[in-house]
Amino acid sequence: MPVALFFRLYRRNFRRLFFFSSCLATGVAFLFAVESVLGAVRRSVGERSRELLAADLEVSSNRPFDAAANRVFDRFRKRGARIVPLTSFSSMLRPEDFGATPFLVSVKAVTAEYPLYGSLVTDPPHAPLGPGDCLVEDTAARQHGLAVGDAVLLGDARLRVSGLITAEPDKSMTRFSFAPGLIIAREAIDKTGLVRFGSRIRHRRLIALPRSADPAAASRAAEREIERTLDSPYIRVTAYADAEPTVSRVLKRVTGFFVVTALITLMLGAVGMGSSLTLFLNEQLPTIGMLRCLGVEPRAVAGLYHALCAAVGLQGAALGAAGGWLLGAVALEALKSGLGLTLPVELSLSPAAAAEALAVSTVVAVGVPFARVRAIAAIAPLTILRGKASTLPPRRRDTAILAILALAALYGFALLKSNSSELARGFAGGLVAAAALLAAASAAAVRAVERFAAKAPGLPFALRHGLLQLGRERARSRIFLFTLSAGFGLLGALDLVRLSLSEEILLGKADLVPDLFLVDIQKPQLQGVKELTRSFSRVEPEFSPLIRARLSHINGVAVRRRDSGAMTLEERSRQSFLLREYNLTYKDRLNGSETIVAGSFWRPGETASRISLEKGFSERMKVGLGDRLRFDIQGRPVEGTVDSIRTIDWMSMKPNFFVVIPRAVLEPAPQNFIASFRLADRGAFSDYQRALGRHFSNVSVIDLSKVLDSVQEILGTLLSALKGVAWFCVAVGLLVLAGTIALDRRARARRTALFKALGCPPARVAAVDAVSFAAIGLLTFAIGSLTALGLGRLIAGMLEIGFFVDFAAVGRTLAAALLFPTAVGVLANWRAYGAGVSKTLKFE
Amino acid sequence: MILKAEALTKDFPTPSGPLRILDGVSFSIDPGESVSITGPSGSGKSSLLGLLAGLDRPTSGRVLFKETSVSEMEETELCAWRRTSVGFVFQNFELVSSLTALENAALPLEILGRSAKEAAARAGEILAALGMGARSGHFPHELSGGEQQRTAIARAYIHEPEIIFADEPTGSLDEETARSVVDSLLGINRRIKTALVLVTHNPELARQLDRSLTIHGGKLA
Ligand SMILES: Nc1ncnc2c1ncn2[C@@H]1O[C@H](COP(=O)(O)OP(=O)(O)OP(=O)(O)O)[C@@H](O)[C@H]1O
Ligand SMILES: [Mg+2]
């Protein structure tokens, strides 16, 4: 009999149960769509990052690779990897033209397979690169008056300029060399006679791994494998996923944002479903009372309704999986055509994903109304039949158990999705706390309205009865208020986080970010270069002194190369880090991109020897406030105490330094200058270059505009995706909320009919409802705004985004909350206002 | 004459063609007169009451209130008419669950535009007269059936309408309670002098009214 009953109940309430399922399904669908699209975006961005390195992986060393290294390369080759040797070094390039000034170039010797990703663009296109040829970076060629066909001398070799380089894939923004680039064929190295024992050479191997589903993970795994096998401090391995810190950092946050958004949509669905299911169960009370009187056991009744909830869950999973697949396909198509993602992305509905949909959906559908269904089982049938139980307050113990289970489930799920226990803990804890606060605030607000309305008989009819309705129909009002504030609060929070993220990505200020850099400015040239550059630049060019130094002592202990045999990998990497050459600068004022996070920065005019370190740098060095460092600047020691730690916003593209020392201390040291700026008019670039070359021929210009453009493009793609996702979430949220409000319309139709029978004109009944919903809207606005700010801050904190409070944005999102309940509530009841009284309320 | 039914017929559409449930019903009621309608179940009593009260429209024929045709009134006119001249008592009370007994009873006066304070004062008096003084602050779900129906009676009379329609007002109550509710109803009716049309199965109750109509198969017997 329960089985037959189940099917009868299911059929009779099919439409409403279907609505509950769709609430869940939207969340589930979104989660899966986000996952598939996210995968595609990540792969696409990965592809772009690979171009910045021209490989999946780069292994470089300042010594020739030994037998062990070659064995490792062979191993990778056997697995299907492609490996290209590169050799880089710096040298002077002399135009053969008598009287021309030689200039420093950064030489790269390549084979025909170079580059593995991206492409080398030359002018003329596909310029040949034979043993007697070379390619010169176009800016440098222009600056020094070199043209295709000219002869140049590099070491002992006489080479012909066969083309100019306009784009070079691995001129990555983080590890650019200061000198302009020159590309020669690998066979030409010997002729130059420059590669000898003792010369500063970087031997490099670019590796392209075989195609895999997750290239970023594959490249990291390969990175670890090589580091583990090659036990040498001279070798540095870079995976493309780490090569471009800005993009990968932003991508990590964006990924986090997407996951949080998906979870929020799922929760909106769960909240909507939970509220509507509660209203549904209240409506089911007469049926339940009847069943109990007919002798159906409490446990069977509870089982019946648990089963109904499970059916809702299963239905939601099926709908969600199908919808998610469709949504993902559509979104990907949009991304591909609209944003130019070039990637053969295959969408698949894996069994694992389907199982996950099933689990999530069913757990939510059964879990959320669990306590209420249990309360049904316990209630005395007579209470129901006499109409004394209009709502079912769940038992406290059940609610508590459920809250704990929800916390665990949320935590587990967030952990699974984000792979970060910290993120998961913050998310789960914050949400449960927010839910508790919201419930309390909703209850308090409803109680306050009731008190006010009951004690103010002077109010106009519609106002008085609207507020009374809100205050007295406590259970229903609380559910509405909770659902709406949670929903709108989440949407507001999402919007705030999105804005903060956009702000952080700095897309809006992109045209003020410097993209040209000057290096090797000598002290006597400083004034002249400044004046020349200022007349061309859009932003005030920033000049920074650069002093090369080595670290000689930490707290009095000499930094020396030790035998690396007994060292852990970490110790070895620290040692090679400490032994490298540092670029120091001096200044007495921070630039806009720096923030002191510990200690304090000195005042202008400081003469004491103090040191300010970048945060990440100090961590790698294992040096903190109060430690003493001694640097060796061309034989002269400079010792100082670390007394501040800074963070740097690298996206600002300002010249920044890990180590800063007061001006008075370093000013006498041997130094040159670097500068960053942006041309007011891009077209004036060659004029500028010619002017610079004429007066300051040793100064090189580095043009990062192309790299920056490509980064901006990637970030732009992500931002538009973010916006789309946020809007989707808003749409889903509004639909779910509308459904919840509309669900209450049977009860309201009856009440409307009664008021009309008593002679109240329909317009006034509508006014009563409108007041009641407008008040809910107003309270939602208030509670929801606070929720948005709180949750926004929480989510931003978890994603490590600087939280940027935009009250106007909160107001914009929540303004919808003001009108939305009224519009939906009145529209949903529209037919009842017009319908004849006897339709609903008749003499029996 | 305050209310007059003229050749009322009512058909309901069914899959097998229209079903006639009222067939040429005519009668009239004088001011202050109380009339019972009795008849077997399914004979059309409730349907007739619905037509008389303007809750439904006849297929043919008409209902006159004084000189106006209720059956031809616009919805707004009907509302105004019910607001000023009509009171209802339903079998299942139909109280607003979120209002107290006092607020429920005061509702028609508030709808008429009287101040809530004045309405509450009047509702207090009438509830006290019905023996409900101590319960006036309670919500419907805190009241017994008899108490709920007394509240509904107070609501029907509070604006002193010219005619009251009641469909089996004691149908949901036990005999004892029913009797006391009927006493309340008739007592207040006598005092306020309102015409009353009351559907009932209870012959004893029917006998207490001025006149009794019996309906059978959609026709007056
Ligand atoms: N909307 C409707 N559609 C079809 N038939 C209807 C409708 N309303 C009432 N009827 C039928 O009209 C007949 C009269 O119904 P009505 O409710 O007036 O009877 P009644 O005399 O009040 O009965 P009871 O004493 O049981 O309340 C019944 O046979 C009923 O089935
Ligand atoms: Mg009837």
Tell me the number of helical segments of chain A per DSSP (H or I, 4 or more residues long).
28
Instruction: Provide the gyration radius of chain A in Å.
Output: 34 Å
By helix and strand content of chain A, what is the structural category?
alpha+beta
Principal-axis shape of chain B: globular
Largest interface: A-B, 31 and 43 residues
Instruction: Give the proportion of residues in helices of chain B.
Output: 25-40%
The number of helices of chain B is 7
CATH architecture of chain B: 3-Layer(aba) Sandwich
Question: Strand-residue fraction of chain A?
Answer: 15-25%
How much is the average pLDDT of chain A?
80
Q: Bin the helical content of chain A.
A: 55-70%
Largest sheet geometry of chain A = 6 strands, mixed, barrel
Bound molecules: adenosine-5'-triphosphate, magnesium ion
Q: Low-confidence spans of chain B: pLDDT under 50, at least 5 residues?
A: none
Largest sheet: spatial strand order of chain B: 6-7-8-3-9-10
Rg result of chain B: 17 Å
Structural class of chain B: alpha/beta
Number of DSSP-assigned strands of chain A: 21
